[in-house]
């Protein structure tokens, strides 16, 4: 009766975890650093990464997600280009029984069971930090004309960076947002839209708030071509903290940068591993970040990892 069953059992073959990741594009230095970080972290964690880049097209992201479902990947991660329109496709993912992680940006869904966790920065706080910097820097009671380069319309960082900034400056009657327009987070659009701001109201602009560094770098060119001094005639505050922006800040052409960390690869791989091991994850994982100004730029430039 008490015989122990000693029949030899084949050990279960070790199969790599397969992760399908739908990256939204390659519009900025931030994005490229984010992609690198994910590729490297997957390699390090021994996770098989199926990577698709959507060139800022939501339709392409849908296609990528459907292909991940077909491939029966273990986990799907997405960096959604805009917030709206995701509910139907995320239902397909859920029906396929594949857990989904949101990375960097949020897909706005009414049913929270459609995703496991959202890993990324607090963009609202970034916007507030930018607003606080502008208030501290511009102590004069005169009218302060501000222009805003918005990123991609309807994207989480643009919505929240815009709101955080406005919530901080709204009590100051002399701070006026003269113009606010989307420039898709790219250098080219940043330059083009800044140029149009300058043609329409050159002399009135005292501050530029740019939702990312690439657009700010484009705007700097536009300002110089227009014959004004970036960082002096027009105070510039940007978001991300890329090496190139630090170089401009060390030259006094950008006045302050709010950090937004793209190196989310390790956080993502850890979440994937924990998920597969059956552990429960917090619904929101926020990455810590700082603010930098001209005085620190010299010491920091070159040390940046992106
Ligand atoms: O700030 C910008 C990029 O979603 C936080 O997207 C990201 C933003 C980042 O294009 O440079």
From TrEMBL:
Keywords per UniProt: Signal
SUPFAM superfamilies, A to Z: Periplasmic binding protein-like I
List, for all copies, the residue spans of the domain called Periplasmic binding protein: 23-279
Write out the annotated subcellular location: Cell envelope
Q: Which InterPro entries match?
A: Peripla_BP_I, SBP_2_dom
The family note in this entry says: Belongs to the bacterial solute-binding protein 2 family.
The name this protein carries in UniProt is Substrate-binding domain-containing protein
């Amino acid at each position: 009766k008490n015989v122990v069953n000693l029949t030899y059992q084949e050990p279960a073959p070790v199969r790599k975890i397969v992760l399908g990741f739908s990256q939204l594009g390659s519009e900025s230095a931030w994005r490229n650093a984010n992609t690198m970080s994910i590729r490297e972290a997957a390699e390090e964690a021994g996770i098989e990464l199926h990577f698709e880049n959507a060139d800022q097209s939501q339709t392409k992201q849908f296609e990528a997600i459907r292909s991940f479902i077909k491939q029966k990947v273990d986990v799907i991660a997405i960096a959604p280009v805009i917030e709206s329109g995701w509910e139907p496709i995320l239902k397909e993912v859920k029906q396929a029984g594949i857990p989904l992680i949101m990375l960097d940006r949020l897909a706005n869904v009414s049913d929270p069971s459609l995703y496991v966790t959202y890993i990324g920065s607090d963009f609202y706080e970034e916007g507030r930090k930018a607003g606080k910097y502008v208030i501290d820097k511009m102590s004069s009671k005169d009218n302060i004309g501000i222009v805003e380069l918005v990123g991609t319309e309807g994207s989480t960082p643009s919505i929240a960076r815009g709101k955080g900034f406005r919530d901080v400056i709204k009590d100051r009657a002399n701070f006026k947002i003269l113009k606010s327009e989307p420039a898709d987070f790219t250098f080219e659009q940043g330059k083009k839209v800044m140029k149009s701001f300058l043609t329409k109201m050159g002399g009135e602009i005292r501050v530029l708030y740019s939702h990312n560094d690439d657009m700010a770098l484009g705007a700097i060119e536009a300002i110089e071509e227009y014959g004004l001094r970036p960082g002096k005639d027009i105070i510039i505050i940007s978001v991300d903290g890329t090496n190139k922006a630090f170089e401009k800040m060390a030259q006094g052409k950008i006045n302050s940068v709010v950090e937004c960390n793209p190196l989310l690869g390790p956080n993502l791989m850890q979440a994937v591993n924990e998920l597969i091991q059956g552990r429960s994850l917090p619904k929101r994982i926020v990455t810590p970040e700082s603010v930098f100004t001209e005085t620190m730029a010299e010491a920091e430039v070159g040390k940046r990892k992106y």
